[in-house]
Amino acid sequence: MIKKCKFYMNMICKIVKKEVVDLADYKASYNDVAGTYEYWVEEMGRFTDHIIKPQLICEKIDNGNEPIKVLDFACGTGYISRKLLLSSIPCEITAVDLSEKMLEVCNDLSLQGVNLIHMDGMTFLENTTEQYDLILCGWALPYFSHEKLFKNFGRVLKKDGVIGVIANSRGTLDKMEKIFLKVMEKNPHEVSKPMNIAFNLPNGEKGLKQWFEKQGFYPLELHEGERVFSFDTGEALLDWLNQTGVMAGSKMIFKDYDQIKEQLIEEIEKLKYDDGKYSINHKFVYGIFNSRGTT
Ligand SMILES: C[S@@+](CC[C@H](N)C(=O)[O-])C[C@H]1O[C@@H](n2cnc3c(N)ncnc32)[C@H](O)[C@@H]1O
Fold it and tell me: Could you count the other beta carbons within 10 Å of the beta carbon of residue 145?
């Protein structure tokens, strides 16, 4: 019990001192993931499509004959920009991401006129003098303080502009936090820094709506969903998490991840076994917002 208390006190101290998985760690993680991120896109891209709605975009954004100015925020390997280019909407796209390796996969987009920017997204928002008709942000909310992010989205969005967001929501990756904490508790000397991403997950539709309304944006569309993936082994489940980037940064919790990996697999096999398989859920929420909403 004393050992457990000591461990949690130490973790709280680290969080207070901001010795946590940080920007540099997420960047390094996504650089590692760039070659396998397509696994995520192949399975989950169809949900991202719900925020790329050419018809709705054209209805809401009156831009005369000018191309629509789009910001693909935390663009990753460019799924959203690529979809927009395939649509019939004339647009001028700026795509920003922190990871140079993810951006390398976007080289084809650069040849099609997309302005690729390698930068921390928040730094970009705070310094740009551009204004956008449309901001799209796929699967990147937890890496930012949502209040600061939406405030800055508001600043760079034109008056009648539209924002589309899809993000993991609270309850996603059920029991994974518990599994990591258990292994961390058992190996306190192997822990380098904790990760406090869970605070940044919206609580489903209601939570995302609240976050946006606080900044003066109201939903045109709002939905939530869940997808469950099953694997034959605990190791395959952990590989999926690592290859798709859904637990980006989590390797950096430990001084030597390879030493700890077996213990993570053991805990996954104990806690994630369900009906002959090892399953993991991805809970998510998506919405399209503007300053007026549906009414
Ligand atoms: C899950 S991927 C999403 C990629 C893409 N939006 C999509 O829908 O497929 C998350 C992306 O956020 C980027 N990212 C994380 N933190 C960031 C930051 N501070 N600034 C810019 N991009 C960041 C990562 O590099 C990664 O490419």
Answer: 12
* Ligand 1 center to 199 CA (angstroms): 18
CB atoms within 10 A of CB 127: 8
Per-block mean pLDDT, blocks of 10 residues, the chain (295 long): 81 84 95 97 97 83 85 98 92 97 97 97 98 97 95 95 96 95 94 82 96 95 97 97 95 96 97 94 97 76
168 three-class SS: strand
Query: Which residue has the least CA distance to atom 16 on ligand 1?
Result: 143
Mutate to test the pocket of ligand 1, among 97, 119, 128, 250 (most ligand atoms within 8 A of CB): 97
Contacts of 225 (CB under 8 A, 6+ apart): 47, 283, 284, 285, 286
Q: Tell whether ligand 1 has an atom less than 6 A from the beta carbon of residue 181.
A: no
- Cα Rg for the chain, rounded, in angstroms? 20
Q: Which of 139, 153, 197, 286 to mutate to test the pocket of ligand 1 (most atoms within 8 A of CB)?
A: 139
Helical axes 234-244 vs 38-48, angle rounded to 10°: 70
Tokens 């996603």 found at: 172
CA 158, distance to chain mean position in Å, is 24
Ligand 1 atom index nearest CA of 246: 1
Q: Quote the pTM value.
A: 0.95
Whether residue 245 has its Cβ less than 6 Å from ligand 1? yes
CA distance 225 to 207: 14
Q: Which domains does the chain have, with CATH numbers?
A: 2-290 (3.40.50.150)
138 lines ligand 1 (CB under 6 A): yes
Strands 157-168 and 132-138, sheet pairing: parallel
Query: What was the pLDDT predicted at 199?
Result: 65
